[in-house]
Write a structure and sequence with these properties.
flat, about 375 residues, 10-stranded parallel beta sheet, homotrimer
Chain lengths: ~375, ~375, ~375
């Protein structure tokens, strides 16, 4: 971890766990004296953590690394701890026993990140252009050169980085974090506790055109009058785009997580807690259920319906509805180029191949 | 539709149609008295429009919605209107009979969007940095923190949002609209009436490198000295990139529509009225004809030639020339993961499968 | 080439070659008198170059163009020159004989581009916001509205365009070029002589979440505490994103070239001199060797290892490790839509097709 707390800032392990464990996870410290003496300056993986850092074991296949880790403390399950003690002499690290080490790691990482962010400047930078008819809540920070247009509303404790635009009539709830260079067009609605990364664009026009009546091949733009409505606790990655609806809204549910460079077309609906990896494209009017996962670079055609708990593998093109929960895939496997050439050439004959097989079978 | 006109701003239906129908579409109002009394505050779909909103029927399969719509008026074809009257009692809405309801909807939506945009501030924002050697036309607006470099030219009535860059020597025609955060490098040429969305980047260097003469594996940059030349009436989506040519120009024809997150490589040529959905990539020097459509996430290799009226399905990789008009596809269909695994495993044996079949046939 | 030097600025050919050939390439001028008289104002292809421009022949298949080119001078191999003289009367252009015409062209293009860039304004623009605790080297230029945060370091002669952000604690080496609108988050480390294009985002959070302990389907964010570390001579294209590591660093080696709209996930490692074409996605923790090339729109799954000198064709999904050098491909070939439909339908039966074939063989 590149930025460590100074030794004076570093909390002792019990205090850190107490402060970071906002989810109320159960945990025990079998060695409370050593824990109280450990001042924690950062986090690290089992192979890289140093003596003032906490590490964790979430994948049992990596339990060998417990024998050699330099970490000052390790979060691990009671079962892994028991097994370690059965196989080896007492390890050098301070154990933190927790049934969910990965969640505890997430909470610890949030604590360290918060510490960093609290060092950032607060308030409205003098260069920001805030329209007199915008409503700015308490404890809001707005970075240099950001633009807040007429009728925009910024909820309490929302932080906005440099070079952001909050368009006319756009409403942001509380405690959102907009990194540098986020652009929200007009009449976008955002819940609370969202995180938007640099280059994200919410509310650009959906892609709608009617063929010109003169049959010249030209296109008549369909102005996009709808909204983008984002729930609470949504994270949107760098350079991801969510287009506004044609007449109604493009809707992103609560707790949705979108990675970088994702494209959400107009009128799309994404259900609560669905997560998409980078480079996914979702074409217009498609509805995705709750708790789905969409692998990287997957592509969903327009006007589809995907049910809840549907999991799409990376690189898959989804071109028809999927109602049943489960995992779905459609990827051409890679091979050495010559082998691929040889086999790909047969693809254009698959149908006749089947006919020839039938003919043989009917002999 | 989120933003309605106030009742005082709302025009009556005949006036609205008269003002919006800039394409000279034919239409009739069978019930002129009711039409004159309807004050229109917005647009909506058949299922969502309210009594002060206009809706439309462009897909005959949705004609059932005419029976229950709450819309104040509906644009529909004379044939659909006749059929409705044959099947049902007089509907509650005011009919607007037009052979091209979808185009009329497009024009009405443009009218409402124009109304919104006319409310935006005009003029050059005091924070904008405009080089004294730039030429700025009449009625130009430039948003906060935009930068207009030396030798740039901005045609009359072009509107530029906040955080835009118009590079040295770049020329914009008349009545263009650049949303927030559009970056035009130096020596880009843009026609008139174009719309560029946030995060679009035109004129970045094409991807050109020569292997270093020392055979170290290093690359020598080929500086990209060409231009980007954009026609009239072009729309370019959010975070789309169009690279400058190596020596000559990358050219985007008149009336081309590019959705979000599209990548156009250097020296590419795109013919008039071609439209591309989001996430398409076009590699360097490929030439695409007129009136083509390229589906979302399709990929075109470099140095290809596609003729006019070629239609590429979403997700298709095009790796060779296509001269004949028509629709072309190449997508691995998705399936349940286990089924896919079972079938994909055979892909690496297709060539031998064919040989085995031949052997049986020759028995 | 759109921007020519004025006749007064134009160097004679021997002086130009002397100034541009920073790589020490061998070359000869068989006609030194004519060379000395040629004043070079720009570069062009064989088919477009004018009499004051230099062109080059790097692809022998285009040697016919030597007969009709209007170029004032042409860089070509001694062998091509010999063959030309055997087949034809003395050509009109001044020959420059060089075993590596493409590299010489690259160097000449760099020279012309440098000339353009030296005309750009230097120094720190008065609107830039530079934190008093940032360290700014000698000869640094910073464009309008750029933001340099606390603890950032900018090495000598680095040029930063408008609307850039250099985050807290981020370190840039010498002679880097950041075009307009590049965003570097906190604690990013960049070597020297890198070029970053508009819209590039380095250091946004990697995509890491733990399932919430309440099993609601919600996600707990794993704050990303690692870094992005970029080597020397790296070029990063427009709207490309490189995420920061979860605990350690995402690393881009020396001489790596990334085209536009590429996504590099957290903890990825890219070896020296590897080049990726546009729209590639690399998922988290994947390690790519040296001197690899990744074709456009290829997708690499997470946690993979690719060895040195691996070449991936455009559009290929790589879902397993590749250790041996060579070319690898996995693309569904495009076809006319009906043919594709007919053949794609058989894909879901490949496994049973093989079984039926076996059955026949065992008869």
């Amino acid at each position: 971890m590149p930025v460590l707390l100074s030794p004076e800032q570093a909390p002792d392990l019990p205090s850190l766990l107490n402060a970071a464990n906002t989810a109320g996870l159960e945990y025990t410290l079998p060695n409370p004296e050593a824990a109280a003496q450990l001042r924690v300056r950062g986090l690290g993986s089992l192979t890289s953590a140093q003596s003032a850092e906490v590490s964790f074991l979430s994948n049992p296949r990596l339990s060998d690394q417990l024998l050699s880790t330099q970490a000052g403390a390790v979060v691990l399950t009671p079962a892994d701890w028991e097994q370690l003690q059965a196989n080896t002499a007492t390890p050098a690290f301070v154990p933190v026993l927790c049934p969910q080490p990965y969640v505890m790691y997430a909470l610890l990482a949030q604590w360290f990140d918060q510490h960093r962010i609290q060092n950032l400047p607060a308030g409205i930078h003098p260069t920001a252009v805030v329209h007199p008819e915008a409503k700015i809540g308490a404890g809001v920070s707005i970075g240099p050169f950001s633009v807040i247009e007429a009728g925009a509303q910024i909820g309490d404790h929302t932080r906005i980085g440099p070079h952001c635009v909050v368009g006319a009539g756009t409403v942001l709830g509380q405690a959102n974090l907009l990194h540098a260079g986020v652009t929200l067009y007009h009449n976008v609605v955002v819940g609370s506790r969202c995180i938007f990364h640099s280059g994200a664009v919410l509310g650009a026009d959906g892609f709608g055109f009617a063929p010109a009546p003169d049959k010249s091949g030209a296109w008549v733009k369909i102005a996009q009058l709808g909204q983008v409505i984002i729930g609470d606790d949504v994270e949107i990655g760098a350079n991801t785009t969510v287009d506004r609806g044609a007449l109604e809204a493009t809707r992103i549910g609560n707790g949705v997580k979108l990675d970088n460079q994702i494209m959400i077309g107009h009128n799309v609906q994404v259900g609560d807690h669905t997560a998409m990896a980078a480079c996914v494209g979702v074409a217009g009017s498609t509805r995705i259920g709750q708790r789905c996962t969409i692998g990287g670079a997957a592509m969903l055609s327009g006007h589809l319906v995907l049910g809840d708990d549907v999991h799409i593998s990376g690189g898959t093109a989804v071109t028809s509805n999927i109602s049943a929960p489960g995992r779905y895939t459609g990827v051409f496997p890679h091979a050495e180029h010559r082998d691929w050439q040889r086999n790909a050439a047969v693809l254009s004959q698959l149908s006749t191949l089947r006919q020839r097989l039938r003919k043989l079978e009917n002999k």
